[in-house]
Write a structure and sequence with these properties.
- By secondary structure, this protein is of the alpha/beta class.
- The chain folds into 2 domains: 96 residues, K Homology domain, type 1 (Ribosomal Protein S8, Chain: A, domain 1); 211 residues, Rossmann fold, CATH 3.40.50.300.
- The protein is elongated.
- The relative contact order is 0.12.
Amino acid sequence: MRVVKAVKSTSIRMEFEDNGTLARLTGEHNQNLARLETELDVSLDSFGNSITVSGPSAAVKTARRALEDIYRQLGSGAQVPEDGSLISDALRWVAAGDAAADAGQGKGVETWRKKIIAKTPGQAAYLDLLRKREVVFGLGPAGTGKTYMAVAKAVESLKKREIERIVLSRPAVEAGERLGFLPGDMKEKVDPYLRPLYDALYDMMPADKVERMLVSGEIEIAPLAFMRGRTLSASYVIIDEAQNTTPVQMKMVLTRLGQDSRMVITGDLSQIDLPDGQPSGLADAVGRLDNVEGVGIKHLSGKDVVRHPVVARILNAYESDS
């Protein structure tokens, strides 16, 4: 005979003052509440300005904290994510603990189109470095937000006129700067490699504003090879896919930084496409600059992936073998 320990159940009733914010929290046809029910195996009943949560005590406590966090974030101006991640984001913060959530959720980045907040403790620490340090290295796998958060901070700085322009650059091909075989002018040659940066810009700014600023030079696309000899003043410089720079290229680009400028270098050291035997400039720089004043380095991991949940599980499986 097997004895099954009974799970203590409980029920709580939560009341919310702002019906408009509550409507955004529950979602169309209460779809967000339905998702939370599925995730935590609880029962949620919405009536008027209240929600009743019933189920196992631990799950009810988690649901209450998630609902409180979502309501507070939406009330402070945060937007409901278009990708349906509202509930999963909240549960991720609850799992991180009260201290991490309180420290990381409150501070956002204001862009023209939306307020962007960190979705994980790792992203919150990264965003804090972007605020405080002149040069920041963001390392980690795809989906951790290392490039997206950097673009967000650059757009906010341009919006506040803390800088005069955003400069976007990256190694144009996997193993060097061989652009000649591609059709079109220089912008057309480089554009395909900068698609993630463009996608982030259009997500944070009206399309016509992006186009105007590209024409005026307030947003500049600069192939890495063309950075040599320049001094980038009053600029927010983002070097993406930097794992495919050489040490010489990395030293060159780091020394382009001028007065009133910031620089963010992003990359994934597990995705180096340089020829065998060629060291990565990103790996070399991180090793050299770890304790240099004004430089911040943040390693993001599978725990910071904010794409489909299975992506995080896949990355964790690969990381467990390293």
